[in-house]
Amino acid sequence: MNSDCEVELVGNDSEYFSIIDQTSGHIEVALSSALTIPAKLKYDLRVKDIDHSHESNILSIHIGNDNGSNWSGYSSGTLATDVSDEENHTCVISEGYTGNYTAENLIIPELVVIKGKIYQVTDIGEFAFGPVDYFYNSNDSLTGSLTLPTTLKNINQGAFFACTRLTGSLIITDNVKIIEYGAFGLCTGFSGDLVIDANRIGDYAFSYAGFTGSLIIGNSVASIGEGSFSYCENFTGSLVIPNSVTNIGDSAFYECTNFNGTLTLSNNLTGIPYHAFSRLRNIIGTLVIPSNVTIIGDEAFQDCEALTGLDLSQAQNLTSIGRSAFVWCKEVIGEIVIPASVEVIKKTAFSQMHKITMITIYGNDHRFNDRVFEGCSFVVNLNFIDCIITSITLGTGVFNNWATVGIVESTNGSSSVDVLAFLKDGGLPTNWESNQ
């Protein structure tokens, strides 16, 4: 046993305690008691008489059966940590590394030793592993996979920004409360799945990340920030927003072009903002807008050109459909239902949806802005259900570039004169047939 290292035990005995120190070699202390120290007491252990200039080189701490504190990924240098809460024995990795990197995987420990005391790693500090000059450089020396500790609670702004050679999959558990702005932005080398269950995903947290597998969003996620996954062009499979999510920011999934399954939205969303799912060009199947959604923002689903169905029938609280919200969703076929709750449909909202065959409008007092249905189809059936046509306000060219309307039906018995005037006001040619 190396006498230069002593273990002080407060309140109990430990079955086993060891330190692997990169500078001093393997130092092991085995105590005679057969008891395993309770987890709540492990921070009462003290490591004494370690040269403080070498403390940050400790790579592994094992207490009892706790082997989750393994640290690897560096060949030499200093791990900079700061105590964040002395009473609760927590610390933040303030500077991930200064020195020489190894060529392989990075495992961040659950436990570190600071001035002879053991602390949990709960935070990765701002730009801890990211480049100093942020947008104008990258950390291309850190390679291999990344394993995060289960003790982690906060991943701060830019923590791993532009670590372009990190590879493989990444798992972030529900212990993490927040992933801050740009934490994994421009991590273009990730090549597997992203499994994420953090409570809050901050703005641009994964923007331009290179994951090539699935994105799995867990049931602990409540908020997805602006641009969180924007330009993540290589995700594949389906995208499911779980019901735990109540808020999505602008452009959250903008240009995630390779998702090639279906898109399922949280039933607890109340709004779908600007560009939220724009240019998901390979998403297929029918998109269902949930019942609690009140607003669909401008260009929210623009260029989702492989969708084959759009179901608005459940969105009975929907009041506004934004400009170009569904423009160029050109493979959608079948019926578009406008719920009675809708007050305004903005410019080009459903423009260039070439394969729709029926538009059913419920209720009164809708306002259709310019070119809402421009270029939609050659033959479309129009239904007005419980709707007085003269209560609808039309902008310019609502029906531009339609060749024919096959059937016009009005359950409120609007006259053919009203229907004809309505269609002409909307820019529809007069070669239509009516069942009235």
Task: Give a written overview of the molecule.
With 436 residues, this protein is mostly beta strands. It has one helix and 33 strands. The chain has one helix spanning 416-425; strands spanning 6-8, 17-21, 25-29, 46-48, 58-63, 74-85, 90-101, 106-107, 111-114, 117-124, 146-147, 154-155, 170-172, 178-179, 194-196, 200-201, 215-217, 223-224, 239-240, 247-248, 263-264, 271-272, 286-288, 295-296, 309-311, 320-321, 333-338, 344-345, 355-362, 367-368, 379-385, 393-394, 404-410. Strands 6, 7, 9, 10, 12, 14, 16, 18 and 20 form a nine-stranded mixed sheet that branches. The protein is elongated, with a radius of gyration of 29 Å. The N and C termini lie far apart (99 Å). Residues 1-78 have low confidence and may be disordered.
Which tags fit this structure?
436 residues; six-stranded parallel β-sheet; disordered N terminus; 1 helix; nine-stranded mixed β-sheet; 33 strands; mainly beta
Largest sheet entry: 9 strands, mixed
Straight-line distance between termini: 99 Å
Q: Tell me what portion of residues adopts beta-strand conformation.
A: 25-35%
- Using only C-alpha atoms, the radius of gyration works out to 29 Å
What's the tally of helices? Answer: 1
Show unreliable segments. Answer: 1-78
Alpha-beta classification: mainly beta
Quick take:
This protein is mostly beta strands.
List the helices and strands and how they pair.
Layout: E1 6-8, E2 17-21, E3 25-29, E4 46-48, E5 58-63, E6 74-85, E7 90-101, E8 106-107, E9 111-114, E10 117-124, E11 146-147, E12 154-155, E13 170-172, E14 178-179, E15 194-196, E16 200-201, E17 215-217, E18 223-224, E19 239-240, E20 247-248, E21 263-264, E22 271-272, E23 286-288, E24 295-296, E25 309-311, E26 320-321, E27 333-338, E28 344-345, E29 355-362, E30 367-368, E31 379-385, E32 393-394, E33 404-410, H1 416-425
Parallel strand pairs: 7-10, 8-11, 10-12, 12-14, 13-15, 14-16, 15-17, 16-18, 18-20, 19-21, 22-24, 23-25, 24-26, 26-28, 27-29, 28-30, 29-31, 30-32, 31-33
Antiparallel strand pairs: 1-4, 2-3, 2-5, 6-7, 9-10
